[in-house]
Amino acid sequence: MESVIGAKYYFHAGPARAILEAMEDGKAFVELSLDLNLSHERFAIKGDCLVLDDHLEIDAKRLAPIAATEQKIFVLNHEGLMPIEIRSGGYYKLVPTDTAPTLEIDGI
User: Fold this and answer.
1) Hey, which of 10, 35, 73, 107 has its CA 20 to 30 A from 3?
2) Count of beta carbons in the 10 Å neighbourhood of residue 34
3) What ranges do the domains of the chain cover?
4) Is 14 in contact with 31 (CB distance < 8 Å)?
5) Strands 29-32 and 41-46
6) What is the three-class DSSP state of 90?
7) pLDDT tens digit sequence for 27-60
8) How much is the pLDDT for 1?
9) Do 13 and 67 form a contact (C-beta atoms < 8 A)?
10) Is the dihedral angle over the CA atoms 49, 93, 84, 82 positive or is it negative?
11) Per-residue confidence (pLDDT) for residue 23, from 0 to 100
12) How far apart are CA 45 and CA 72, in angstroms?
């Protein structure tokens, strides 16, 4: 989970769908949580890109697979969008909820 340390933006199906819908509707902004429901922020939309900060954008093409993936959380890091999961000695992943995410261990 080293790639999660210092991460700033987390995506799962709910926010990804909200972003894509806002883009389709031609909205200039979307309000959502990209920090695992710790806060809600207003993010700008430029064409088919979500503006995360002055130097970072993510486009609809990269969000579409996340919008179609239920029960996984992805972190945006220097390697791109990576699922938060470990496949060693079992299978562990973070699962999105309406509040804090849940750690799922071997499907439970």
Assistant:
1) 107
2) 21
3) 2-105
4) no
5) antiparallel
6) coil
7) 999 999 999 888 999 999 999 999 998 889 999 9
8) 40
9) yes
10) negative
11) 97
12) 24
Placement of tokens 């972190």 in the chain? 75
Nearest to 94 by CA among 15, 11, 7, 16: 11
Q: DSSP string of 18-49?
A: HHHHHHHTT-SEEEE-SSTTS--EEEEEETTE
Residues 6+ apart with CB under 8 A from 85: 72, 91, 92, 93, 94
Which pLDDT tens digit goes with each residue over 71-102? 999 999 878 899 999 998 889 998 888 888 88
**What digits encode the pLDDT tens for the residues 1-26?**
444 545 689 999 999 999 999 999 99
Q: Residue 85: enclosing H or E segment and its boundaries?
A: strand 85-86
Chain mean position to CA 91: 20
